[in-house]
Design a protein that fits this description.
With 252 residues, the protein is an alpha/beta fold. It is 31% helix and 22% strand. It has two domains: 98 residues, Leucine Dehydrogenase, chain A, domain 1 (Rossmann fold); 133 residues, NAD(P)-binding Rossmann-like Domain (Rossmann fold). Helix 7 links the parallel strand 11 and strand 12.
Length: 252
């Protein structure tokens, strides 16, 4: 048996088991399975590896994309540069961390870059990245690649450029690309939304939510109400999952 899975704190919202089970079935891989492993603390990670010696790969979700790094034997250069891991290869008793969130977000945002600038204006697009966790690190990496200026919003000034209370109408009007990398609004707390001055939104704004369950979050509904372009997280999720599967296949 070749076992794969997802580690995180709470996984009731996850699409991964269903997604990879379908991938394995379509490929005729009857000796492959995918499980969900809820860990109350990342310190349980080594115990998990010992309990399931048939593990070949893991995905990593909140809140362990950064916390898992000290437990790994090796990091892929991209994961090291980003400072976050969402995919792990387990081979010959060793673990290696990768980051496929970068590829997923790059695929999602690259087609939009030219549309983020006002026609006839030399002003470059500016973005607000909501959250400072592992997904935020991947988003920031891609925005730097694309030359998009951004500011990170966090509860703590140590982890971000701005705290939530500093996001006023002026900041919101200038930053016309807003990316939610937090779990705010995720099932089962689907009625929640990041605390922002939504009345400052315009049709020139683009809102991207990496939350994929529900498909349309309150955050995105607020954007739609003000004429903004909105993009959910399912496309990025599928893209990063496809990249993870390629890595696992190449690992043998």
């Amino acid at each position: 048996m070749k076992r794969y899975g997802l580690i995180g704190l709470k996984l009731g919202h996850s699409f991964s088991k269903d997604h990879f089970t379908k991938v394995f079935r379509k490929a005729g891989l009857k000796d492959h399975r995918y499980d969900l492993f809820e860990l109350a603390d990342i310190a349980e990670f080594p115990v998990l590896l010992k309990k399931y010696p048939d593990l070949r790969g893991l995905n990593v979700t909140v809140p362990y994309k950064e916390a898992v790094i000290p437990f790994l034997d090796e990091l892929d250069p991209l994961a090291a540069a980003v400072g976050a891991v969402n995919t792990i290869v387990i081979k010959d008793g060793l673990t290696k961390g990768y980051n496929t969130d970068v590829a997923g977000f790059r695929k999602l945002i690259t087609p939009l870059v030219d549309t983020l600038r006002d026609p006839g204006s030399d002003i470059k697009a500016r973005a607000l990245v909501l959250g400072s966790g592992g997904a935020s690190r991947a988003v920031a990496f891609v925005l730097r690649e694309l030359g998009i200026r951004f500011r990170i919003v966090s509860r703590s000034r140590e982890r971000g450029d701005l705290t939530w209370d500093l996001i006023d109408n002026t900041v919101f009007r200038v930053c016309r690309l807003v990316i939610n990398t937090t779990p705010i609004g995720m099932y089962p707390n689907a009625e929640e939304a990041p605390p922002l001055p939504y009345t400052a939104l315009t049709a020139k704004h683009t809102l991207v939510d990496l939350v994929y369950n529900p498909k349309e979050t309150v955050f995105l509904h607020y954007g739609e109400d003000h004429g903004a372009r909105t993009i959910g997280g399912l496309g990025m999720l599928k893209a990063q999952a496809d990249e993870a599967w390629k890595i696992w296949q190449n690992a043998g």
